[in-house]
Amino acid sequence: MNMAVAEAEAAVESFLRHIDTRTTADVAICPPYLAIGVVGEVLRGSRVALGAQDVFWAEKGAFTGRISAKMLVDVGVSTCIVGHSETRGRFGKLEVPESTIGYFAETDETINLKIKALLYASIAPILCVGETLAEREAGSTDAVIAEQIVGALVGLDPSELGPLSIAYEPVWAIGTGQTCDSAEANRVCGVVRAEVAKLCGDDLAQSMRILYGGSVKSSNAYELFHQSDIDGGLVGGASLDPEEFSRIVMSG
Predict the structure, then answer these.
(1) Gap between the Cα atoms of 158 and 123, Å rounded
(2) d(CA 172, CA 177)
(3) Which residues lie closer than 8 Å to 250 by C-beta, 6 or more apart?
(4) Which of 37, 114, 251, 252 is the most buried (most CB within 10 A)?
């Protein structure tokens, strides 16, 4: 939840000026809902895709304040984040009163419904999974990741999941300045790939993009992106700085 419309427009224009057109990296920008239209116009004709930060699973109805996949298609969105730790109410750095955590009530069931809605609308989902600090300290990282993947993909046929990417975002590294060690990030991304292989077959697991998110910045991007099981990044705070974001993209 950053940048008013004019700020977002200026930031994306600056990013496009800084990014080297020779890069082969696939890039998407997921602005807040109100800036999607303007940012989409700025991106028109570029190689950068337009994304969204969330979606609601119903096509229409009495769901005040929600945005459907059909609405996202209408403004040119081609990819969408689902199940981010913050929509799940799992914060690395808590910036709201603890009593309001229940407001952020995403579950594996709602994430599953959103993925189905996005796939039906031909929008590529980016599924976020990750563990809290308490879960990591308890040694349950791998089990938490597996449970989240299973819950998100229930009822989906492997043949439908070609457009899906999965982003591993250790909750304790989001907005805290902490970064998961690159070797450990790679290990957990390998756990993600192995779980996909178990559920959907090795072919899909090997072709699926597994991303890392959690305090990604230009100083660590190269090392992270060149790990064997990390195919790219889900960049948060660093993407607000157009020059820094362009350096991260070029690190790939």
Answers:
(1) 16
(2) 9
(3) 19, 20, 23, 25
(4) 114
Q: Number of helices (H) and strands (E), helices first, in the chain?
A: 10, 7
162: tokens are 């070609």
Instruction: For residue 7, indicate whether it is catalytic.
Output: no
Catalytic residue among 84, 86, 106, 131: 84
Please name the residue that has the structure tokens 């996909």.
Answer: 196
Residue 84 backbone dihedrals phi, psi, to 5 degrees: -60, 145
Residue 169 is a catalytic residue: yes
Q: How many CB atoms lie within 10 A of CB 29?
A: 24
Residues 6 or more apart whose CB falls under 8 angstroms from that of 225 comprise 231, 232, 233, 251, 252
pLDDT digits (tens, 9 = 90+) for 92-101: 888 999 999 9
The structure tokens 């756990």 sit at 191
Annotated catalytic residue, options 106, 131, 169, 244: 169
Crossing angle (nearest 10°) for helices 242-251 and 218-225: 20
